[in-house]
Design goal:
globular; 9 helices; about 240 residues; about 20% strand; alpha/beta; single chain; seven-stranded mixed β-sheet; Rossmann fold
Amino acid sequence: MNVYLDFLALFGIGGAHPGGLNLTRELLQKEKITTNTRLLDVGCGTGQTAEYIMSKYGCHVTGIDNHPIMINKANKRKVLSGLPITYQIGNIEKLNLHNKYDLIIAESVLSFTDIKLSVSELYRLLEPGGILLAIEMTDVGLKEDEKNYIKDFYGVHEISQETEWIELFERSGFNNVVSTFNYRSLKQTTSNVDDNTGTEFQLSPNIPEEFFKVLEQHEQINSLYKNKLGFRVYRCVK
């Protein structure tokens, strides 16, 4: 059980990753995506990114998430959009998938898993020359007690530094691992969803009061540690 992930599911939060959909758009613009591209969105949540990708590029999109509420909300979105996206429940550490993909995107997902297992699994699912784009929380100056507090709140095993992330990807077999930090996308991110650029909510009915406290604590952590808990985009080639 992960209370933070339950909170995300009950609130139906899309675009929760740093940079939001703006950052996703910028990253994908740099890739060669055609109608023949096979793309896997791991930790797809409510399907915001998957829907954008299929509507923009018309490629083959599969979304995976291990939370049934998220997949339920993604399927409701699919009905409204009419887009033929495939959604299914799955554990990223051991996916029941046999297809190969040209591009895998993971937006603030790997940190919530056994990272070594999940990265190895995503490597397996990529075609030779395939690309993994991972947006992940990264330690940029946390003290040990601060790190332990944040790990406990988010329910993650580790908060890695940039060099540790790169070493992990390389040990899993990836080459040409490049790390970037997109300041412009962070500045452009907004909570206004009218233009489909920021955080969106698909609220479940009768959300327990405790989960509103989770939202409050999450915002406090973001404010208190904004200069110590960062993120990076890791582009990894198989």
